[in-house]
Amino acid sequence: MTVRITAQGFDALTELWQHSPAIVQNELSSAMNEAVAYAQHQIVSRTPTGAGEGGHLAASINSEVMINPSVQIGYVGTSKLYAEAVELGTKPHMPPIEPLVNWVEAVLNLEGLEAEKVATLIALKIKSRGTEGQFMFKEGLEASEPYIQERFNQAMKTLLNTLGGGND
Questions:
Q1: Regions in the chain scoring below 50 on pLDDT
Q2: What is the structure's pLDDT at 7?
Q3: Distance between the two ends of the chain, CA-based, in angstroms?
Q4: What pLDDT sits at residue 5?
Q5: 112 and 154 share a domain?
Q6: Are residues 47 and 121 in the same domain?
Q7: Are 65 and 29 in a shared domain?
Q8: 80 and 160: one domain?
Q9: Which residue, 55, 117, 140, 166, is most buried by CB atoms nearer than 10 A?
């Protein structure tokens, strides 16, 4: 999913960039870093608690901002392969038992045979019904969009005022 921002006064940015590229880059970088951190928080707060190799899915969600002279890209994502299944849900299938045992032990505080029995019951339910999508990325980004739009509008106003092009 992609969030596209349309900054107000964008036409003026081209001229500002030519006269003061470092100031423009710094302000836009600040806005991008804040926007990405906000989106990450919104996504993580919507991610279900779980367990697994290397930790919970929520703990694996990270962000990064890539900047070069012509473009800035903010990224929020995870390297966990099962994130897509959590995000979108799954059709009925028989999942592997071991990750479910880990989840039962960590989240339900069960151990040994009891954890295996509960994990097996969960696996059988997934086999018959699949899983519902949690849509934490979709909903987190949707919730972030107004903040991100406002933050970039604020950056644009700051640049226009700082560099003498503002009318406020």
A1: 54, 168
A2: 57
A3: 35
A4: 63
A5: no
A6: no
A7: yes
A8: yes
A9: 140
